[in-house]
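Please, structure for the following, as tokens.
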Amino acid sequence: MTWETVIGLEVHVQINTQSKIFSGASATFGAEPNAHASVVECALPGVLPVMNREVVSKAIKLGLALNAAVNQKNVFDRKNYFYPDLPKGYQISQLDLPIIEHGKLDIVVGDAVKTINVTRAHMEEDAGKSVHDAFANYTGIDLNRAGTPLLEVVSEPEMRSAAEAVAYAKALHSLVTWLDICDGNMAEGSFRIDANVSVRPRGQAEFGTRCEIKNLNSFRFLEQAINYEVSRQIELIEDGGKVIQQTRLFDPANGETRAMRSKEDAHDYRYFPDPDLLPIIISDEMMNQARAAMPELPAEMAARFINDYGVSEYDARLLTASRIQAAYFEEAAQTCGQGKLVANWINGELAAALNKADLELANSPISAVRLAGLVAKIADGTLSSKLAKQVFEALWTSDLSAEAIIERNGLKQMTDSGAIEAIINDVLANNEKSVAEFKAGKEKAFNALVGQVMKASKGKANPQQVQELMKAKLG
């Protein structure tokens, strides 16, 4: 039997506001335990939540970017459950009237583009954190995270592989950071993923029993967890067992998922409208302000890069993977007027160097203007591709411009026909065997002769000129 994987993701996006969703307490990460726990998060008697307007504004931006319906009437509900890091005994969330519904997000897997439907995104508060390793035989409760504003973004179960799930998660991560509504720091929990995974016989319409893998905080763990869970479920069914609906955790050390608890449904949480929070009505004016403040979105910018700078569709997608990368490219392309060549260097040599040094583009030793200086020297014939790589290495380790490095190291490409012809004459005179082989029809002999000229010129001769002059000499 062949099996089909069915995956839906629930992503918790932490909104990057200064204060929490229902109190004025700081939402900054990294403080001493409980330093940012106000009376609201501690659920002291008589305290009331007050909605943070900025959370609504940032949620609207995501709705617009997903081409979704933004509900202008919003109601908050209480999701009731007991856990030590939830002093109120309930989480304030949204059930029936979420702020965002029916959105779409395009993903790219290989060369294929697929649209994933986003069911909804709702506003809610985060819970606190149980700390199990700070004290021997005790668990500590840190409420700094309690009340941090979240958008829970829920997809339709339309992904059919771990690769598609990772592509969706990366696309959403790119979008929320592009919109500047989330810092995207997965290590700090700003972007956490729950994966709902099931399998079914290929061709069957009915879904299989799903398991939810909670709190995945890296794209690599997401892929590993899904692949393991798919294999586990298939093996279980083929051995005559049944998949039980449950919540599972991923253990990165062993690369396995393990059972945490039976999976709850909505009715298990006894949702009801929160009586302490009035419905939130988003005015037309607030919607218009949000539309006016929207940045150019990645798809729009990619289309403009293709049109204005002549880059390929593939390169445009890479260049618009983040706002930092898009801004870097545009500054360099405008500086030297060579958009296609700039794209090649950003997606090629620069990307490889950053990856090797484990650096982000924001921390690149080579600024956009300095890279543009290098590209300009390639475009005007001053540098061959080989010499350009030498200049790039020098740019990486110094503050000099490309022009200064070329002058200092004597790296200017040789374009004088007379000088190149003199080298060719010497090479032909000293390589009679290769000349004879070429005239006998061996093309490799020609390449060998060109290589000898380039070696004699220390890589400085213009390769195109060398080939043209060599062909003329050999007839």
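The first helix runs from residue 53 to 65. Residues 36 and 144 are 5 Å apart (CA to CA).
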